[in-house]
Amino acid sequence: MPGHVVLKSTGPDPDPTEYLYVSLEQKRIDQTKPYDAKKACWVPCEKEGYVLGEIQGTKGDLVTVGLSGGETKNFKKDVVCQVNPPKFEKCEDMSNLTYLNDASVLYNLKSRYVCKLIYTYSGLFCVAINPYKRYPIYTNRVVKIYQGKRRNEVPPHIFAIADGAYMDMLQNHENQSMLITGESGAGKTENTKKVIQYFANIARRSDHFDKKVVQVKFSSGGVSFLAPSLP
């Protein structure tokens, strides 16, 4: 399938950088986008969900918006959404957005997805969009990037969530759970498999797995980690 990255059985793992981080060139392009805080807006669109527009005037409860192609339409004020400044382009954690409206959330997820960034945080949650392609972001090389790291030290990933649950279990000696939910085809099963893979991988590296038995239970849409008993 086009877009697949074929993993070789021998040799080093592929470089995952472009699938985890926004490139410096892309950041430069994003930061130079024109932006007028008073005029930029999102408006509803049947085909796209929301499209970018420019406020040209208001009259009572109606807002006149200029759209791409020179078209002008009137919208009710309550459906016109504000646009975030360029510094929030492809934001890793949407809870940091100045404007957390539906249009801004959808735009951020879409813009990251187009750049092959399928994971995005929204506060405590990690949003995953199924790329229907194989990206090299679950290799041993990627496991090393996330193992033992704080969530804000690494880009969004299911491995970061898994490692956070594992570290909390070891430090607090309390059971941990992960809820993986979504519509059919969203990637619930695949992400659950990746959580299992992550723990299987760090099991070979960690003294905690050698000395203590950590039970992992799986149920529909969730993973539970049972803390080992204290000596």
UniProtKB/TrEMBL annotation:
InterPro entries given in the database record: Kinesin_motor_dom_sf, Myosin_head_motor_dom-like, Myosin_S1_N, P-loop_NTPase, SH3_Myosin
GO MF annotations in UniProt: actin filament binding; ATP binding; calmodulin binding; microfilament motor activity
Binding annotation for ATP: 182-189
Keyword Nucleotide-binding set for record: yes
Coiled coil: none
Domain Myosin N-terminal SH3-like per the UniProt entry, residue ranges: 36-85
PROSITE patterns: MYOSIN_MOTOR, SH3_LIKE
Keywords: Actin-binding, ATP-binding, Calmodulin-binding, Coiled coil, Motor protein, Myosin, Nucleotide-binding
UniProt-recorded name of the protein: Myosin motor domain-containing protein
Family (UniProt): Belongs to the TRAFAC class myosin-kinesin ATPase superfamily. Myosin family.
GO cellular component: cytoplasm; membrane; myosin complex
Annotated SUPFAM superfamilies: P-loop containing nucleoside triphosphate hydrolases
Superkingdom, taxonomy of origin: Eukaryota
Species annotation: Scylla olivacea
An example Gene Ontology biological process: actin filament organization
Myosin motor domain residues: 89-231
